[in-house]
Fold these 3 entries.
Entry 1:
Amino acid sequence: YIFDLPFRKAVAFTGSGELTMEGLKDHEEIFKKIIDPKEIEALLSWYTSYYEFGETLTEEMIHEYELIYPALKQREIASRAEKKLFMELTTAGFNWDYFKFKNQYFKKEDYLVFGNAKATLQTEAVHAERLAVKNKFLQLHESLQKYISGLKLQENTNAEAIVSSSDISYHTANKIQSMWLAYGRRAAELKKYSDDALFANFMSMLVIILPKNIGLWLVPGKAGTGKEDREFFQRQMLDAAYRATFFRLLSSLGAGYWIEIVGERKPVESFQNEEVLWEFTKADQWPYFDFIIGKNYSLGDVEISNDNITSTITKEFDKLILLYRHMKDNSTDNK
């Protein structure tokens, strides 16, 4: 940035902050201030050389970029998530031995099977470790089944798919970095859409294990799923009363909850009002990006111990179910 000042003076700043609110205000960026006239003149000359060789932006360029943008953004999100996990597991004094797993429902080995070292492996030993986690989810499901039925939710009608697949071919990039137990629409509801409607293509409530977390998530849709619910939600958000209710329900989830749109995850308490929240949700694009509302529990948290994990799930699902009902497309209920 180069500024002309009164009395033939100038000042320049070189740095990493782009000309956006985030680049100038919200994110931490580093700049160097330059006041030497010769250095400023050199910067101006450098900029001019780039400008002269630049191409004028056209509608055709914008259209072509729109076509490739989702794929570029998906790779950026995946890369950012991998770097974040890498930093969390290798820096800031992280050590598996610091955590007490004796009374935890999921043990150290349950988390490790979803780490980078094993995510792409297909050996018998790793497969057995994944099946052990799957069996723990099935036991958890048995303890939750009556409660889930009371919420008028249902597990996948395919008995083999109550817990997500342990076959890497069903996972993005052939990497198993998570496993989950999902609840959503009942079979009768799905038939109102079509005879071959898939449980996984609609809004769900998940209990999910990740390389170092357990998550309780409301998922309007993963990338490429949730078309009906997510488009319904966007239409409903045009109504001020609907927006106000959504804001109230989201805010009432409390500390620790976040909402993720197009790879950006924000704490629910960071939204000052429903209009700010609405602007954030407008970015959702169901064919390309995940839409998730959730809360994660860290290794060793007492809430996910043997004694507490079931009560924790029911307590948090009692809050998430209100959002589920508010956001879900019910347009077929009267068909």
Note: The chain has ten helices and nine strands.
Entry 2:
Amino acid sequence: MVERLIKNIESNQLFSSNDTLLVGVSGGIDSVVLIDLLYNAGYAFDVAHCNFNLRGEESNQDEIFVQGLAAKYDKQFFCKSFDTRNYAFEEGISIEMAARDLRYHWFEEIRRANRYDWILVAHHQDDQAETFFLNLARGTGIFGLTGMKEVNGKIIRPLLFAARKEIEAYASSRDLHYREDSTNAQTDYQRNKIRHLILPLMEELNPSFREGLLTTISHLKDASLIYNRAIEAIKERVISRKSPDTIEISISEMKLLDPLPTYLFELLKEYHFNGEVVEDLVKSIDKQSGKQFFSPTHRAILDREVIIVQKQDGQSSMRYYVDEKTTDVAFPVKLSITKHRRTVDFRLSNSDRIAMIDSAKLQFPLILRKWQKGDYFKPLGMSGIKKLSDFFIDEKFSLNDKEKTWILANGEEIVWIIGFRLDDRYKITPATVDYLEVRLG
């Protein structure tokens, strides 16, 4: 396998034998095999490890193990500890995305400071297949189906030629020790579901499935080169950059493109807008000037002549506005909103996922936001006010539960802790004439 690694590096001109390498090592089997291969191939490298503090003492033991590995191969060891959950919360992104961002940003800092030529990571063929299905499930354009690149900027993936079974066989033949991530066997995570459930099923249907999928990915990469040239030409025509964090997309120029949803998706995907939001934007393009659309990192404002795309702060400080005509909210939380006149056969819902709110007590636009320190409300059925922090303690909210909680507010007053409790001040009373029914999901 050492010879295959060298051949792959040389034939694809990934790097030269004189280059200095920084290798990201988690302590799992893939990265342990990678550094052993590099060592036996005679390449110069050092080791970097991220402690994301996501698995308690297990994360700390991973750090100690990788430090020992670096000593074993007589390599310099870099390590950094991250508050990953808090970073994900502040940036309004998933834990997986947060870990990826923190890892690669830090790797690049080390590379620059120590003048390494390249950063190496241990993704392999099975990771490529899993990435294909992840992107397919999320909804993606052609680039999402082309998998990971062997070279992406200063990041190199020299093990994409190898399957997981080959890596396991090499580790066994060399008697290599590595750390097992306890979460890898769980099917709660999307990637693990693909690894343990979907890929084995596909191989049951076709034993040569993995080879066929990799061939398909290769063909898609070739097609994407042609596709990319067309998209880049369109970008130059329809996009103007107003500041480092703001672009404008000409609506009149966009309307000349067919199919419009596909072109707009390609223009907005780097700002993390998904296909559902793009479709909603296309439907609104001739109807609602001023309407806003959101991704985890940006917002798009539908103006009369342009679509303004701006970078946003983390979700913890972001506010999303719900005007009086809004019937559906897709982001940051999915809501449906209907207006009703109270009738004699009215029945109050007892579901926590439905809020029935006295319309006369509301002043639009309503606000969707995260909870903040010092927030208080009057829980439905209670006479006094209560701090949200105390409510969370009483209801036994985990840190993860609190991070996921969204607030529907009327100005500075809380109307509904979405999915949990209505504020008593906004309940329906015998005097209520009109009401809003807001449904979660």
Note: The longest strand covers residues 44-51.
Entry 3:
Amino acid sequence: MKGIILAGGSATRLHPITKVVNKHLLPIYNKPMIYYPLASLMLAGIREVLIISSPDDLEDFKNLFGSGEDYGINISYKIQQRPNGIAESFIIAEDFIGESNVCLILGDNIFYGDNFNVILSKANKAMNEEGKALVFGYHVRDPERYGVIEFDENLNVKSIEEKPKNPKSSYAVVGLYFFPNDVIKIAKTLKPSNRGELEITDVNSNYLKENRLKVEILNKGFAWLDTGTHDSLLQASNFIQTIELRQNLMVGSIEQIAYEKGYITSDKLIQIASKMQNIAYGQNLIKIAQETLI
């Protein structure tokens, strides 16, 4: 299984703060936004990751993560020349994906909830065993803003629509998708929508027609944060701050996940943390490493 983070786009809804900075590098409390989707892929056990972004921004991501060696993973990079749609990711990533299945996550989606790593591992396993695509549904109050999924009492998908005027359910499809390898072939057959984009909903619709689309519902105790507006950006930061300070937890820490997954040693974690030892983030990482050595 390989992972893709789509971190392109012009982010006009976040102007003026994104006029010169890629939105996925904006801070969500104490970490760059892109840390959170990368953390999700790592929780799913994915160690080969491709970051796709615009020509002007890709070097910034390389400067942030390098090869991924510090986290015990492999990170590579590709350019999306123009924001031609989410589904174009699979065409751009064809060589990277190779013969593997793939998980795509949007760079501005943040997930937090109990046993998220278990949910991801289960999704990964189910897709590999059944050869079906898998999406996640989340109950929202304004489904007309999202891709909407309709399903029966057994979670069999009945329909999926992009930003419908009359939604058939209140469940949005979040920006996290598991696909079999043939998603590349499907993406190549798509035609641009009225927006001029290759739509991820059309990819999902192809799998639905073949009875190869499953849905996993994220329950009410789960948080899905879409950070595409000024308000949601602030709300996400406040949410992460509350969780970390009140529960003494780290959310979306790729260094911690790398250590707990066994990708890096305690010495490596301390080495990374020592460069941030004057701030709470680094101090927390040092504490995590030292506690497991006792």
Note: DSSP finds eleven helices and 13 strands in the chain.
